[in-house]
Amino acid sequence: MDQGLRNYLVVTGGYWAFTITDGAIRMLVVLYFHLLGYSPFEVAMLFLFYEFFGIVTNLVGGWLGARIGLNLTMHIGMGLQVVALLLLTVPDPWLSVVYVMFAQALSGIAKDLNKMSAKASVKTMVKDGGESKLFKWVAVLTGSKNALKGGGYFVGAALLELIGFRGALAVLAAMLLLVLIVTAVLLPSGLGKMKSKPKFTQVFSNIAAINWLSAARFFLFGSRDVWFVVGLPVFLYEVLQWSFTQVGGYLAIWIIGYGIVQASVPRLVKRSHHGQGPGGGTARLWAFLLALFPIAIATGLQLGWPADYVLVIGLILFGVVFAINSAVHSYLILAYSDHEKVAMSVGFYYMANAGGRLLGTVLSGLVYQLDGLSGCLWWSAGFVLVAALLSFGLPEIKQKVAAQQL
């Protein structure tokens, strides 16, 4: 087997295992702490450090990966996630807001170290000029990850009902520790490590395309999390009176479907005749299309249409178009980056991603508490439109992106 393909499969397998725990722990925290009597805004605050430290981690993580190797940063992330899972197994009286926020901070650092490492390493496995293979490999990695994150949501909700909060956390921690050991043995050392030691100031991109894409990514992911993190699961549980398993099952199906679509994007999005992947025009088109869906769903809810049908059908359609947007962005950040600095470029880009998730998470609890789920969806529509407008700064891949340095 080709060495690049072998490394890609190992990285993907490790990323899959981590992603299941990431989805499960989020579902466990949302449902269990809502059950303990936390308000929607208080539940959202539990994820504040998770998202905030994701910003810091992506900023520092890309620089760290370039210095010590992406395989090492990926395994540090796995180890931190094991610790974060075990920290939440303490008795209920210990689970104060501050304590849980600290555990979630570790989980946020772990998640973004793992994601940055896995995605940046793909660039190192594809030779220059292999844009078609790069687009396909990134789409498969990202799409399969999101499908498994959906599975993690279901696993978390199901384990909560079957063996309780602490039993679920212990099972997830043991599984991830085993995967950490296996991938550490199989992956070569120094993956993605730069020949020269980069300065920390180099983490800030001086390529215009990457800055525009990062800004668009900020609002794109804010548009999802503003309704997805707290508003939707609480609405399904409280207003529609779904069970934990039903809530987790729907969110799982949504994310799995989103991941399947994302992995299929290279076949859905037409490539140019020169073997290039999508460019700025593709990103703009799909962003404007995405804005139509939260507007339609919010309008349907406000007109009093059956909420279950409006949400189930409307958010599935939103997920399909959102997946295409996300896959195009995930390809563009690697296409706009060069091999030598890919870890830092991806770290900077996912710092913006984490920033959008942070804002979306906070607004998800706050806006839901003030204006309900329809209010969250109107905020979502506004965020998508901003992302679409920012995408006018994105060039086509055939252009010399590096020449557009600021």
UniProtKB/TrEMBL annotation:
The keyword Transmembrane helix applies. The chain crosses the membrane at residues 7-35, 41-61, 167-191, 203-222, 242-265, 285-305, 311-336, 348-370, 376-394. Pfam families: MFS_1. Gene3D superfamilies: MFS general substrate transporter like domains. The keyword rRNA-binding does not apply. SUPFAM superfamilies: MFS general substrate transporter. One of its GO terms (molecular function) is transmembrane transporter activity. It comes from the Bacteria. Keywords: Membrane, Transmembrane, Transmembrane helix. PANTHER family: MAJOR FACILITATOR SUPERFAMILY DOMAIN, GENERAL SUBSTRATE TRANSPORTER, MAJOR FACILITATOR SUPERFAMILY MFS_1. This is Organoarsenical effux MFS transporter ArsJ. It comes from Candidatus Thiodiazotropha taylori. The lineage of its organism: Bacteria, Pseudomonadati, Pseudomonadota, Gammaproteobacteria, Chromatiales.
